[in-house]
Design goal:
This protein is of the alpha+beta class and about 210 residues long. The protein contains six helices and ten strands. Strands 1, 2, 3, 5, 8 and 9 form a six-stranded mixed β-sheet that branches. The chain has a two-stranded antiparallel ribbon with strand order 4-10. Strand 6 and strand 7 form a beta hairpin.
Length: about 210
């Protein structure tokens, strides 16, 4: 199910994220705060709920590190699923930012798309306490990760630029060719999302 809210304004991402968390407080035990080009992928577990069942009680937010994917050489947008078309990623993600899954009842503010202000503890994928930050050193990706399709094709990148930036607004120059090349990392072939592509296609075909 999709609940769609259209929001006007520039640089309103923090306000919108916090409003979404407040709406979810009465309905959701956990809420993932991610973008459309980010996919949560369990590495150890079969599903995200399986992973969440092992998280300690009274946890307010879970930090999960980005795994950055490149363009796979695509200049124009290819047909098909993102997870099928982009199978090359960065080898070392240790310096990448993290995103969060939060308990909405423990959130009291939004610092950025990467970290919220909470009233209880913050943990990593192993349930170990961490200090909240946009980039947390040493986060592992052995249990769960967020596949971030930051580049996709050059065409996709340019279309992002015309829309403006959700956090900084329309004046933020982010999707230049130099910026694209910086993030276009295709070091390692990774087909770990293929199983989800098969499931999605099966679902769209009516389970056949």
């Amino acid at each position: 199910m999709v609940e769609y809210h259209y929001v006007r304004g520039e640089g309103v991402q923090n306000r919108v994220n916090y409003a979404a968390v407040r709406r979810a407080a009465a309905e959701a035990r956990w809420l993932a705060v991610i973008d459309l080009d980010e996919f949560i992928m369990p590495v150890k577990d079969c599903t995200i709920p399986d992973f969440l069942r092992r998280i300690p009680q009274r946890t307010a937010q879970i930090f999960i590190r980005w795994c950055l994917y490149g363009s796979a050489g695509h200049v124009t947008r290819p047909a098909g699923l993102v997870i099928e078309n982009y199978k090359y990623r960065q080898r070392d993600n240790s310096g990448e930012a993290n995103k969060i899954i939060v308990n909405p009842r423990m959130v009291v503010g939004c610092r950025s798309p990467h970290v919220f202000d909470v009233i209880w503890r913050s943990v990593d994928e192993r349930g170990h306490a961490v200090t909240p930050s946009n980039v947390i050193p040493g986060l592992s990706q052995d249990i769960i990760r967020i596949n971030h399709y930051r580049c996709k094709s050059w065409q996709d990148s340019q279309e992002k630029h015309t829309k403006g930036d959700a956090f900084w607004g329309s004046g933020y120059v982010r999707y230049t060719r130099a910026d694209f090349d910086k993030f276009d990392t295709n070091d390692v072939y990774d087909n770990s999302m293929d199983k989800y592509a098969r499931l999605l296609k099966k679902e769209n075909d009516g389970g056949q």
